[in-house]
Write a structure and sequence with these properties.
single chain; alpha+beta; 20 strands; disordered C terminus
């Protein structure tokens, strides 16, 4: 009777152990998925979008108010240096300049008369005539400067990319009438989130594609400026980064959207696993490694670079060729 009771107890313990193994490994009937620890490259990439802006451009505006009387170009026109593209109505200022020049001639004649007969005039009178002559000439110079400012001239040869001037339209001080660019020389301007900005360094290269072109048209760019001051838009903090294209392309236009991939770090010939093969418990990271045909062992691992496409570098705890569990079927 005692021996029979022992046999039954052994059977119960064996059945319990078998059930534990079944639910530990089979995961309610599903095979445990595994991934092999491999050796290869792990790269970290920051991906952002940007807008194509001209590297050299000038926004032209008037320094005074007035009414446009001539709009001499349109967007897309090629211009030469010093070309007049917009002018204001100068009827009033022309009349003022005519009167000022006449007044200056009279003042200069009066000064000359005094100089020819210096002894007939007191020093104060001679000084007053000299001052009046100088003030009259200064007024002429001031009106001439205003006359010159009533036309917009191109500061360099290039192309008119924007033009917002119509004859008869009123102009306010500082309103941009036109933008002149040097075509072919563009920068790609992007706003990089604060979470990624520390990874970006001057001189880093980037792969760039444009929505307006095909995905096979891949351009190489270089980080040339990183704005030290942040920009906050709707509580999102970012930093302006500019990329210079290594090669130009006549198909590129101001304002095009570019897709930018910057490789910020890369490790070659390292061990890696999918990130979903790892679990964190407190400050430690674990992987569940296959031992033999039916067993698994939970091991502590040390990770390095977290790369693209869910890969992560393994610096210790696993060796090449080890099998580790992955995904939701992994049980701890």
């Amino acid at each position: 009777m005692f021996r029979k009771r022992n046999i039954i107890l052994v059977l119960i313990i064996s059945a319990s152990a078998l059930a534990w193994w079944y639910f530990r490994v089979k995961n309610t009937g599903e095979a445990v998925q595994t991934e092999i620890v491999r050796r290869g490259d792990v790269a970290e990439t920051v991906s952002v979008t940007g807008e194509l802006v001209p590297e050299t451009y000038a926004d032209l505006s008037f320094a005074s108010a007035g009414i446009i009387d001539a709009a001499l170009v349109k967007a897309g026109d090629v211009v030469i240096e010093g070309q007049v593209i917009v002018s204001l109505d100068r009827e009033v200022i022309s009349s003022q300049l005519k009167d000022a020049r006449l007044a200056a001639r009279i003042a200069e004649q009066n000064e000359q008369l005094i100089l020819r007969d210096r002894l007939s005039y007191a020093p104060e009178e001679r000084a007053a005539k000299k001052l009046a002559s100088a003030q009259a000439r200064e007024k002429v110079h001031t009106i001439e400067a205003e006359m010159a400012a009533s036309v917009l001239r191109t500061p360099f040869a290039g192309e008119v990319s924007r033009f917002d001037a119509r004859v008869g339209e009123g102009v306010t001080l500082g309103k941009v009438m036109a933008r002149v660019i040097k075509p072919g020389a563009y920068l790609l301007e992007s706003r990089v989130p604060e979470s990624d900005i520390a990874k970006i360094k001057l001189g880093m290269t980037a792969k760039i594609t444009f929505d307006a072109l095909t995905q096979d048209d891949i351009f190489e760019g270089e980080v040339v400026t990183i704005d030290p001051a942040s920009t906050v838009v709707q509580d999102v903090v970012s930093y302006t980064v500019q990329f210079r294209l290594k090669l130009g392309d006549e198909r590129l236009k101001e304002g095009m959207t570019g897709n930018i991939d910057i490789e910020t770090d890369k490790r070659t010939g390292v061990l890696w696993v999918p990130y979903r093969a790892l679990t964190k418990e407190g400050t430690k990271t674990y992987a569940e490694m296959k031992r033999g045909e039916q067993g698994f062992e939970k091991v502590v691992v040390t990770t390095g670079l977290e790369g693209d496409e869910g890969t992560v570098e393994i610096t210790s705890g696993l060796t090449e060729g080890d099998a580790v569990t992955i995904g939701a079927t992994q049980k701890k």
